[in-house]
Design a protein that fits this description.
- This protein has 396 residues and is α+β, with helices and mostly antiparallel strands.
- The protein has 12 helices and 8 strands.
- The strands form 3 sheets. The protein has a 4-stranded antiparallel sheet with strand order 1-2-3-8. Strands 4-5 form a two-stranded antiparallel ribbon. It has a two-stranded antiparallel sheet with strand order 6-7.
- A hairpin with a 4-residue loop joins strand 6 and strand 7.
- Helix 5 packs across helix 8.
- The longest helix is centred in the N-terminal third of the chain and has 33 residues.
- The radius of gyration is 29 Å and the shape is globular.
- The two termini are 56 Å apart.
Length: 396
């Protein structure tokens, strides 16, 4: 600053602008964004040029082309005259089925084994430890191959199928179970089930508010059973029992009738459930151990048995530790379902690979894969974050 004018010299002013942390950070971020945009633009233009030189049409119009191939497991209507888009939708549905069932079974198995690792019974604790340490240290692909080639492929042929309870049969072609064929009037039963679920949720909210106001919570068990089980049964009877039971029959060379669960699905379902369940078990064990021992002692002082203490005191507090890593395991299970390609399970990746080989639209198919898995993962993360917010401890 000069004595005559009281102003900073021009050079000093420029130096202060370039050494200002805020200005410097903005300049660096803008440069990074521009660099990334130029890099993406270069990739897109280079890819478009390569596609033109190879005479490959880009775009997603190929999804309307006839597929011309069959799929072994079709949970929704599909024939080889359907489009590529319909085939990919079948693969997506199979992915959601194995991921959803695997998440449910892995969660149940993980909680049971995680609590078993803290059991006072040495045998139960030892079995749980061996299970966790075994499957946590084996790659998931090997677990899938073990179930497919080491277990299910060694089962007897259909004509010597193992007969299970409830008229089910197990063979090297999968599990054959009775199936229910619903009539047109069955919609009333499903509507009653939906009404019962909604009413149970509303009733649970009312009971929770009453508990906060009075300290007492009415029992929800019998009202829930009446709404979820009793109401659909009444609707089923009122609509004239619109359902028939198709029971599988043992034939000369094969099983006929009923519903077939193919060995590919059983292998990927059991492998992912058992593999992920081992990690969930450790998460549950760590969550329970994170709860102060004083909570267990306080529950015992109130006369609560160990089971009630776990369910009402320990596990609800452990959820704040369990839920974040549990979300990661759910996402891992969903992504590991793509390994079903190794045994021929027609999931999104397997069906997409067939579409890619036939159509040559590799970039579009990969974009579909990435978009679907990204969308599923974000949806699961949002749901688990909402659940985590609901289960967090409320501090006074």
């Amino acid at each position: 600053m000069t004595a005559e004018t009281g102003t900073m010299p021009a050079g000093r002013d420029r130096d202060s602008v370039f050494t200002n942390p805020l200005v410097r950070s903005i300049v660096i971020q803008v440069a990074l964004v521009l660099g990334l945009a130029l890099f993406v633009l270069w990739i897109v233009s280079n890819t478009a040029e390569n596609l033109r030189s190879a005479n490959i049409a880009s775009g997603f119009g190929f999804l309307q082309t006839r597929s011309g191939f069959d799929i072994s497991q079709v949970p929704i209507a599909y024939t080889n005259n359907a489009t590529y888009g319909r085939a990919i939708l079948v693969g997506l549905t199979n992915t959601l089925i194995v991921a959803g069932t695997g998440i449910v079974f892995a969660t149940i198995l993980g909680f049971v084994v995680g609590i078993g690792r803290l059991s006072h019974n040495a045998l139960v604790r030892g079995i749980a430890t061996v299970y966790v340490e075994t499957f946590r240290n084996i790659p998931p692909l090997l677990v899938i191959l073990f179930w497919y080639f080491g277990v299910l492929s060694l089962l007897p042929q259909p004509r010597q199928a193992i007969e299970l309870p409830f008229d089910a049969f197990l063979s090297n072609r999968g599990l054959q179970t009775p199936s229910v064929q619903f009539g047109a009037e069955a919609w009333l039963t499903f509507a009653a089930l939906g009404v019962g679920l909604v009413a149970t949720f509303v009733l649970s909210s009312v009971f929770s508010r009453r508990q906060k106001a009075t300290g007492r919570r009415p029992s929800l068990l019998w009202p829930a059973l009446a709404l979820i089980v009793g109401l659909p049964i009444l609707a089923f009877a009122a609509s004239g029992f619109p359902a028939t039971l198709d029971i599988p029959q043992r034939g000369t060379f094969n099983l006929s009738g009923g519903f077939q669960i193919k060995p590919e699905f059983l292998s990927i379902f059991l492998a992912l459930s058992v593999y992920t369940g081992a990690f969930i078990a450790e998460i549950v064990r760590a969550g329970i151990l994170s709860v102060s021992k004083g909570q267990t002692e306080a529950a015992a002082a109130l006369g609560l048995r160990r089971g009630l203490s776990l369910r009402l005191v320990i596990v609800p507090q452990a959820f704040r530790v369990i839920i974040p890593p549990l979300t990661s395991q759910y996402l891992n299970l969903i992504k590991n379902s793509s390994l079903g390609l190794a045994i021929g399970y027609p999931d999104l990746v397997a069906v997409g690979s067939t579409v890619l080989n036939q159509s040559g639209q590799s970039i579009e198919v990969v974009v579909i894969w990435m978009s679907v898995y990204l969308g599923i993962s974000i949806a699961i993360s949002i749901l688990m974050n909402l659940f985590n917010r609901r289960m967090k401890l409320v501090e006074r």
